[in-house]
Amino acid sequence: MIGRVRLLPQTGAGWALVWLGFAALAALPFFATPFYVGLITTAMTAAMLALSLQLLVGGVGLVSLGHGAFYGLAAYIVYFLSPEGAAKPIWLTLPAAMCGSALAALVIGAISLRTKGFFFLMVTLAFGQLVYSVFHDTKLGGGTDGAYLAKPLLSAFGFTLETTSLPRSKRAWPVYYVALVQLVLMFGLLTWILRSMLGRVLEGVRVNDGRMRALGFNTFAYKLAAFTIAGALAGAAGHMWAMQSGFVNPELVGWHRSAEALLHILLGGIGTLAGPIVGAFAFIFLNDVAQQVTERKLLVEGAVILAAVLLMRNGITGLRWLPNLPSAKEGTAPDHDLAPPQKEAHVDD
Amino acid sequence: MTEAGSSSVLLETVALSKSFGGVSAVRSVSLTLSRGELHAVIGPNGAGKSTLVNLLAGLLEPTSGRIVLDKRDVTQLREHQRTHLGLARSFQRTNILGSLTVLENVRLAAQAISLPWQRLTRPPDGEVQLIETARSALARAGLEYGHGRIAGTLAHGQQRQLEIAMALAARPKVLLLDEPLAGMGPEEGERVAALLKSLAGEHAVLLIEHDMDFVFAVADRLTVLVEGAVLATGRPDDVRANVEVQAAYLGGHA
């Protein structure tokens, strides 16, 4: 009676589908070529970024164009900590990248959350480009060319996994599973947040910010908390990118990243938590196919995405025949206690 | 003019003014609201009644003057902080969380003022106390059933009742009700009127209302606002007898 949690699967079948998807990802390296293991790792990284942004977009109704800044910043933090030839362990680089991004999100959020709607979009865009220009226009991180970094070591408890000791066909596996574990953990964390009373407040803010303030909620503080958490999670995604590619450049920070993440959300479904993941995968898959069949990759991609967004207004996960999903419209949840048999007519006149 | 001793005054405004770019909406309004009192503010359209409520609630910042809530100057405090100090309001135009359930609307109101932040990460189902508070506020406002319905699908009158339940769940000392009867049918209106009478016993209620018969029947005290300024204040009978008020506002009513 407290009501459903909007972004989460509404049925057991929906949850089964989610876990089946993760299980399929866990099994994939056993069947796929190293190229596809790498490609899916890229997709999972993109999914992490989109998922972190979904906390703001789907969760609080805040559309930010500066989210890429936290992603790119984290990659640069890995570069600063672990430059070429001086690899550092992941247990150092990951928390550092996430903390750095969270801190940046706290500062940027504290200023940009004083605006709303279109202005919020513009202010976050401006902040994102500010961070971009720091890396683009100074020699700080190799300037416009970017720089190579030493991929963080997979070490824990004094044990380090040397990927070079693995057979060539399995060298991409460790990074793949690091990405998968993080993706699943992030999904779990966001599920937990959405189900908690914090999540209910964020949903209230999304629906009616002003009313929540009148009820006694300091909505600015709640939005800032969400913005900071989303920034930290985007940091994990940026760290993942550095970990897989071993390279940073200013493009990681630019607004294109943010726009791409928004596109993933839109494509996969703005009304579900699984949407951004599905959207990111669909996008990368489309990218791969388009590259193989045509030289006009962007044209094909653009046309397909346009068609997809026009035909599926709630994204891929919003398709009716998927069990995953709540009904597309808000406010149509079934209710169980409309009940009182005699008095109802009186109450409902 | 004050009937109650100053010790029981819960809400007081001192020379409160608000102007919007040179246009004065509220001019030097001083009024008091005491424990257990139902104080109605009446006045023609554009008299500044809703502006006054928004100033009291903290939605608007006054141009000058002070607001004292339970002996504490709250003029500089923000909306949500005033709610924590015991001020709750309803809105003139129904303002609810339309896509959430009825219960969740009220449960959030209870959560806002009583949940320590450490418990925020817990699921709401376990907070029996909050749900209990919400249910009793709903019952008090006359919504005994349909707590699982989506608030936006309720009939207009029920949404007005939900607004009152949301205000009650904050266990306020002072209730600001901005035209709670607006748009209600006669039958619904009667029910809410009875509710307001019963509320006045426990809370200090500041009521903005258009329905004159209703106001004169329920109010302990009346303030007549005309063009943003207090024209008269006092017991209903005194106000009714006031010649200025008759000329300015009540017309043939008295």
Overview of this structure, please?
- The complex is a heterodimer of chains A (349) and B (254).
- With 349 residues, chain A is mainly α.
- Chain A has helices at 12-27, 34-60, 67-81, 90-112, 117-137, 173-195, 197-214, 219-245, 255-268, 275-293, 297-311, 344-347; strands at residues 147-148, 154-156, 159-161, 247-248.
- The longest helix of chain A is centred in the N-terminal third of the chain and has 27 residues, at 34-60.
- Chain A is globular.
- The two termini of chain A are 22 Å apart.
- In chain A, 46% of the residues are buried.
- Residues 325-349 of chain A have low confidence and may be disordered.
- Chain B is of the alpha/beta class.
- Helices cover 36% and strands 25% of the residues of chain B.
- Chain B has 9 helices and 10 strands.
- Chain B has helices at residues 49-57, 79-84, 102-114, 128-140, 156-169, 186-200, 212-218, 236-241, 243-250, and strands spanning 9-20, 23-34, 38-42, 64-69, 72-73, 87-90, 174-178, 204-208, 221-226, 229-234.
- Chain B has a 6-stranded mixed β-sheet, sandwiched between helices. Chain B has a 4-stranded antiparallel β-sheet with strand order 2-1-4-5, with helices on one face.
- In chain B, helix 3 (102-114) packs across helix 4.
- Residues 1-6 of chain B have low confidence and may be disordered.
- At the A-B interface, helix 6 and helix 7 of A face helix 2, helix 3 and helix 5 of B.
Please sum up the structure shown.
Chain A is mainly alpha-helical.
Overall helicity of chain A: 55-70%
Order the strands across the largest sheet of chain A as they lie in space.
1-4
Radius of gyration of chain A, taken over Cα atoms and rounded to an integer in Å: 21 Å
Elements of chain A, N to C (H/E)? HHHHHEEEHHHEHHHH
Rough outline of chain A? globular
Gyration radius of chain B, to the nearest Å? Answer: 18 Å
Q: What's the tally of helices of chain A?
A: 12
Content-based structural category of chain B: alpha/beta
Largest sheet of chain A: 2 strands, antiparallel
Order of helices and strands of chain B: EEEHEEHEHHHEHEHEEHH
Query: Which blocks of ≥5 consecutive residues of chain B have pLDDT under 50?
Result: 1-6
Question: What share of the residues of chain A does DSSP label as strand, in percent?
Answer: under 5%
Strand content of chain B: 15-25%
Quaternary structure: heterodimer
Termini Cα gap of chain A = 22 Å
Mean pLDDT level of chain B: 89
Distance between the termini of chain B: 22 Å
Query: What is the percent of helical residues of chain B?
Result: 25-40%
Structural class of chain A: mainly alpha
List the total number of helices of chain B: 9
Count interface residues per chain for the largest interface.
A-B, 41 and 53 residues
